Amino acid sequence: MTVFIPALLSRAATNVDGDNANAVYRDTAARLMEMAAKDQGMFKGIILGLTAEQRTFTEEILRAGAGSSASENASAQSTAPSIALKMSF
Questions:
Q1: Which residues form the domain of 58?
Q2: Residue 52: Cβ-neighbour burial (10 angstroms; 0-12, 13-18, 19+)
Q3: Do residues 66 and 85 touch, judged by C-beta distance below 8 A?
Q4: Total domains in the fold of the chain
Q5: DSSP secondary-structure letter at 16?
Q6: Residue 42: inside a domain
Q7: Cβ atoms of residues 74 and 46 within 8 Å
Q8: CB-CB contact of 65 with 25 (8 Å)
Q9: What is the pLDDT averaged over residues 72-86?
Q10: In a domain, 88, yes or no
Q11: What is the pTM (predicted TM-score) of this model?
């Protein structure tokens, strides 16, 4: 995780051209959430070790990834309960 998280952030930062950026952000957000689900303590420790800019960018990616998937799922499941992401790293 220590190597993979900064690599994902770097990939997302370099792929910011229009529609491709949304897809990359969604994919990056999904991978980050998978890692957080596997070991929350390690994930939090790694995030806290990032620079302030990287932490802000990580939060932006997670919000963009959650926002785009939420808007896609909202039309399919308008009555489903929603879960808000807590971004306190």
A1: 4-76
A2: exposed
A3: yes
A4: 1
A5: -
A6: yes
A7: no
A8: yes
A9: 55
A10: no
A11: 0.70
pLDDT at 40: 93
| 7-21 exposure pattern, b = at least 16 Cβ within 10 A, e = fewer | ebbeebeeeeeeeee
The sign one gets for the Cα dihedral 42, 48, 53, 55 is positive
pLDDT in tens, 31-66: 999 999 999 999 999 999 999 999 999 999 999 887
Query: How does residue 75 score in pLDDT terms, banded at 50, 70 and 90?
Result: very low
- The full DSSP string for 63-78 is HHHHHHHHHHHHHH-T
Tell me whether residue 82 is in a domain. no
With respect to residue 81, please indicate whether it lies within any of the assigned structural domains: no
Distance CA 69, CA 66 (A): 5
State the average pLDDT over residues 64-76. 57
